[in-house]
Amino acid sequence: MPTGTVGVEIDELLIEVIGGYRPSGWENVWIVGGIRYLDLEADIDFAVIGRRSASQDFADPFIGLSWQPRRGNWEYLVEADVGGGIDADFSWSVTLGGAFHFNDRYAASFGYRFIDIDFEDDEFVFDGSMDGIQIGLMITF
């Protein structure tokens, strides 16, 4: 590696368990909540002093609203949530997407998501955002 350069690699794993409740009279709006687990690993390679690594995992609750109108086999999604307070100081996310329902139980989903997390402890600080495309399989119980 040439002198004066820095190489950075960040690996992340984000898992959420989410549930929802639709109050009577709220046709397409759900109150959602759950637990967000994040595992981060950062490797920084300094040309002069070598490689440094740090990792951290944490879990926090979140709560939000989800608007999910359905037209035929297609369902659309606008969702926003806020969380944190246990491990992370604060987090929030916004999702835009849709799903195609094969039947009443299974659907293929797709979307775009932006999430911002502010985490700090004595040895690890992560104040950043992540965004990207998501795909999934929805199963209704």
Question: What does this entry look like structurally?
Answer:
With 141 residues, the chain is an all-beta fold. The chain has a single domain (6-139), classed as Porin (Beta Barrel). It is 0% helix and 75% strand. It has strands at residues 6-21, 29-46, 50-67, 70-71, 74-83, 90-101, 106-120, 125-139.
Report the CATH topology name: Porin
Q: What integer value in Å does the Rg equal?
A: 19 Å
Order of helices and strands: EEEEEEEE
Strand content: over 45%
Q: What is the CATH C level class, in words?
A: Mainly Beta
Count of discrete alpha- or pi-helical segments spanning 4 or more residues: 0
Number of strands: 8
Note the quaternary state here. single chain
Round the mean pLDDT to the nearest integer and report it. Answer: 90
Classification by helices and strands? mainly beta
Distance between the termini: 53 Å
Query: Any idea what the CATH architecture is?
Result: Beta Barrel
Q: Helix amount, in percent?
A: under 10%
Sequence stretches where pLDDT stays below 50 over 5 or more residues: none
